[in-house]
Specification:
This protein is α+β, with helices and mostly antiparallel strands. Helix content is 24%, strand content 29%. The strands form four sheets. Strands 1, 3, 6, 7, 8, 9, 10, 11 and 12 form a nine-stranded mixed β-sheet that branches. Strands 2-15 form a two-stranded parallel ribbon. A hairpin with a 5-residue loop joins strand 4 and strand 5.
């Protein structure tokens, strides 16, 4: 009897073992968190990031902006902004500011501005006006746009020091005229190269190209990616696409306060390829 009982218990234990699925040991090589998956994807994309300059051009006077960046900034606050293919990596300026940036000169330290310049910007920029679909040529210069308040304390101090103190208020003003028949030889364009999967993990991809419009040759291209480590968290007014600039390849220069500096990035890259004509 004891033998039969022993056989029954052994058989029961065998059936229980066969009916219970084996527990798999987690593979440490497989990412298990959302951020880990995003970081692995980002690092893979970064293998293709960087600048490639195949050819340069000298004494360039003007360029054609094949696309002008929009005025609005994509902060990443909504699902629509998460997936909007508007190139948040490459965005530095928008609208007329984007055009103007190519016309300004540089200071001795290389800053792009309209005062104390030692080099000039491009003499003209052409672009298509999205309103009427026509091509226009933009130039610019410093002009007086108003007068200072003579009752203001600082102005009165300057007038006492110098009776000939200039009361004009100056600004860089754009001039817009219909473009001539012949367009510039060199064009600049950008594209958002993000995939839906990349945007799911808050990764934005960017392409910036300089093109010889005569031969349709790509003279240079910059590929860049950035990732929001917060994976879209917007708590406390957080802006995912703005903060993503801190995790980027190529990395952006760092401004005071250890913040990434994205301004002038398009101009900086284009100028490496299309060297601006100086002098007459």
């Amino acid at each position: 009897m004891n033998g039969i009982k022993s056989i029954f218990v052994a058989t029961l234990l065998l059936l229980m073992a066969c009916g219970t699925p084996a527990q798999k040991t987690p593979d440490p090589a497989v990412p298990t968190s959302r951020l880990a998956i995003a970081e692995a994807m980002f690092q893979e994309r970064c293998k293709t990031a960087g600048e490639k300059i195949y050819r340069t051009a000298e004494n360039v006077e003007g360029i054609f902006l094949m696309k002008v960046r929009p005025n609005g900034i994509n902060y990443g606050h909504t699902p629509e902004q998460q997936f909007a293919l508007d190139d948040p990596y490459g965005r530095d300026l928008g609208g007329e500011g984007y055009i103007e940036n190519f016309l300004l000169g540089r200071t001795e330290k290389g800053s792009v501005t309209f005062v104390n310049n030692v080099t000039t910007g491009y003499r003209y920029v052409e672009a298509i006006d999205p309103v009427d679909g026509k091509r226009y040529r933009y130039t610019g210069s410093m002009r007086a746009i108003g007068k200072k308040d003579v009752t203001a304390y600082n102005v009165q101090v300057e007038l006492k020091r110098d009776p000939n103190y200039d009361l004009n208020i100056y600004a860089f003003v754009l001039d817009k005229t219909p473009a001539p028949a012949d367009s510039p030889r060199y064009g600049v364009t950008y594209d958002d190269i993000s995939t839906h999967e990349e945007r799911e993990y808050w990764i934005a991809g960017s392409s910036l190209k300089v093109i010889d419009l005569k031969s349709n040759e790509v003279m240079a291209e910059r590929i860049g990616y950035m990732m929001d480590r917060g994976q879209g968290d917007n708590g406390g007014g957080r802006s995912p696409w703005l903060l993503a600039a801190s995790t980027a390849c190529p990395a952006f220069p760092v401004a005071p306060g250890n913040h990434p500096f994205k301004m002038n990035q398009t101009r900086d890259f284009v100028e490496k390829v299309l060297h601006i004509k100086q002098g007459n």
